[in-house]
Amino acid sequence: MSKCVTEKVKFSCVNVAGEREAYSICLQIPKEDAASLAKIQQAIDEATQEGIADTWNGRRPEKLRTPLRSGENDLFFINATSWQRPEVVDKDLHILRDPGAVKSGDWGKASITFFPYRIKGSCGIGAGLNNIQLLSF
Length: 137
Description:
By secondary structure, this protein is an alpha+beta fold. The chain has a single domain, classed as CATH 2.40.50.140. It is built from 1 helix and 8 strands. Strands 1, 2, 3, 4, 5, 6, 7 and 8 form an 8-stranded mixed sheet that branches. The termini are far apart. 24% of the residues are buried.
């Protein structure tokens, strides 16, 4: 697993409040944000190497699915999920007691973990959601 903290990204499809089976968020990264994209790509590459060593029998799958996708309006996006509610903090790193304060359209940083998987013949890199920092709304 390879951990990464993004630079400032836009949140959408936010599901991090209340009691749920799974929590999720879509992170929209501007294509000109070279710093975030470099961190993310490095973490994906590290998770890919881990997958080759431990998950995919010593070789990279031909059709490897990765979580970083090209979206609309000059954005890339990543859908990140977690079985546990992520901790949400404000710009000063104070814990927000109401994770429902994070809404689609807000901007912030996210801590995500990339990991290799093999499920029913499908191989790829998944994105796990760790924590969220709300910067602006």
